[in-house]
Amino acid sequence: MTSSKKTSPKSATKPSTKVGRRLFLRGAGTVALGLPFLESFTRTSRAKAAPADYSFAVWCRQANGVAQSDLQWDPARAEPDLFWPTATGRLTRESLGAMSTQAMSELADFADVLLPVAGLRFPFPGNGCGHSGGGNQVLTAARVSDTPSGNESLAMGESVDNRLARELASSTTDPLTLFTGRKSGFLPEVLSYRGPRDLRAAENDPYLVYSRMVGMSGRSDEELNAARLRQASVNDAVRDQMSWLLSRDLSGADRRRLDLHFSAIRDLEITMGCNLPAMREMELDGVDPLSEGNYQLVTQMHMDVIAIALTCGYTRSATLQMGNGNDGTQHSIPGVNGGAALPRYHQISHRIYSDGSEGDPIAGAHGLHHQVDRMHARLFKYLLERLAERDTPDGDRLLDVGTACWTNDLGAGVSHTYNNVPFIFAGSLGGNLAVGQYVDVREGSTYQAHNRVFNTILSAAGVRKSDGSLVDDFGDSSLPRGLLDAMVDPSGPAWG
Fold first, then answer.
1. Which residue blocks in 416-464 are alpha helix, DSSP H?
2. Domain boundary among 289, 322, 342
3. What is the DSSP string of 465-479?
4. Residues in contact with 423: Cβ distance below 8 Å, sequence separation at least 6, in sequence order
5. How confident is the model at residue 238 (pLDDT cuts 50, 70, 90)?
6. Reduced to 3 states, what is the DSSP secondary structure of residue 356?
7. 327-340 b/e with 16+ CB inside 10 Å = b?
8. 3-state class (DSSP) for residue 415
9. pLDDT tens across 200-213, in order?
10. In this predicted structure, what is the pLDDT of residue 20?
11. Residues 472 and 326 in one domain
12. What is the mean pLDDT of residues 111-118?
């Protein structure tokens, strides 16, 4: 969203008021610092039904399925479920915390805003690679391409993060698309699609994403290092421009947005001032800052970036792909395996020392998979904490006006099943989702296609079809229409 074009000090002091949907401040000798969407600087309205002011959705994808019962693998060797809550219905901090054998107990502190949805399936078969086919469908509910196929297969439709970003007003019409880990040559990105076969590349360096957001991406290494030594904030570099903007005839809501924007930038700079220089130092020493040993740290930093992007109106939609398409990261988890690196995660999910179907068994692989699930649950909790500690300009908790989802591109790793793929939501989208409960949407033994989840989220976020009606047709046209009633709080403002 930024430009490398330089501006003179004189021209920088008074930005044009003809800014439309994108608003920037320009500092002398620097590139643009993106600001939140300000109502006072636009006179146009969207033709479709106006979305909620601050609604958003974040999609965090884990790979290789979860440690749940996998009858499709071998009914005689069915493993116990160590993932889901032990009973459907209302969730409380106490009840979820007491389910200590389950990975989701890690989220007990947020039980009142959780909405785990079981019983969902990807509706279409993969095409030569279960991981790729699952990744193609996880946010699109679209068919998998015939050409290309295998690990190169692509989705034949738009992903929900893209639809949200282009429908909801923000500084950019693109979703924030992030990636933790090193991208493998076999199967890297799988998640975000602009349209059929149009896969969006994800960014795996949180520092570069942050730099672009706050307008530092055009600075030389010398300028960046000097700024770090001065401990100077981006806010300080544009203080005159900030004063000019605040002197304008802004609404009270816009003034609160600006105050929150500058406070959030300062907070994140302080946080990243502790971590990112160390990562940069490792990079200068020839050590990859996205090495496997930094998986959890980098994921958390991506989540910090997501939180500020949502707070400041940079975007209203974000994805975070954690690990490559069939993630073979060797995780190190405190208290697990004596602190040593685990076998490759993909192999753990297969339960053997192999990426195929034949290999020596990994002792305790089901339990190790469960520990990786718990680790990802704690990472998701970190995101929820960041969203819960921030407020909108109207004083609402950020977590309550949007939703975050922890999902997967498989149901379970051994069979590569597309049944019972986890979709764990947190945040009610302004009271429109029936949070604080665990639901299973299976009808008897029949799993439900997951496209209706996206209809529900889009509609709850304020997106509407061209005729003003609720979105009921996201995904492939052959799929059942409508919302997923079990997710809906009928008293929410979106349904009135």
1. 451-460
2. 289
3. -TTSPBP---S-TTS
4. 116, 117, 120, 405, 406, 407, 450, 453
5. low
6. coil
7. bbbebbbeebeeee
8. coil
9. 999 988 877 877 77
10. 29
11. yes
12. 98
Q: Domain check: are 71 and 188 in the same one?
A: yes
Kindly tell me if the per-residue pLDDT of 271 is higher than 70.
no
**Is residue 39 within 8 Å of 21, Cβ to Cβ?**
no
Q: What's the one-letter identity of residue 177?
A: T
CATH number at residue 433: 3.40.720
Please indicate, yes or no, whether residues 231 and 88 belong to a single structural domain of this protein. Answer: no
| CA distance linking residue 220 with residue 272, whole number of Å | 19
**Residue 178 included in any domain:** yes
Q: Is the bond leading into 148 cis (omega within 30 degrees of zero)?
A: yes
Which amino acid makes up residue 438? Y
Residue type, 253: A
Q: What letter represents residue 82's amino acid?
A: L
Residue type, 448: Q
For residue 42, tell me if it sits in a domain.
no
324/429 same-domain check: yes
Contacts of 123 (CB under 8 A, 6+ apart): 137, 141, 449, 450, 451, 476, 479
| Number of structural domains found in the chain | 2
Which among 138, 281, 150, 283 is positioned nearest to 204, based on CA atoms?
A: 283
189 and 213 part of one domain = no
Rounded CA-CA distance 220/224 in Å is: 6
**pLDDT tens figures, 427-453:** 999 999 999 999 999 999 899 999 999
**pLDDT value at 231 more than 80:** no
All residues at 6 or more sequence positions from 95 whose CB lies less than 8 Å from its CB, including other chains: 111
Task: For residue range 146-203, list pLDDT tens digits in order.
Answer: 999 999 999 999 999 999 999 987 667 899 999 998 888 789 999 999 999 999 999 9
Q: What's the confidence (pLDDT) of residue 35? A: 53
One domain for residues 335 and 466: yes
Listed residue (355, 348, 346, 343) closest to 326, CA to CA = 346
Which range marks the domain in which residue 274 is found?
206-289
State the pLDDT at residue 305. Answer: 86
386-417 pLDDT, tens per residue? 999 888 777 789 999 999 999 999 999 899 99
The rounded distance, in Å, linking the Cα atoms of 301 and 281 is 16
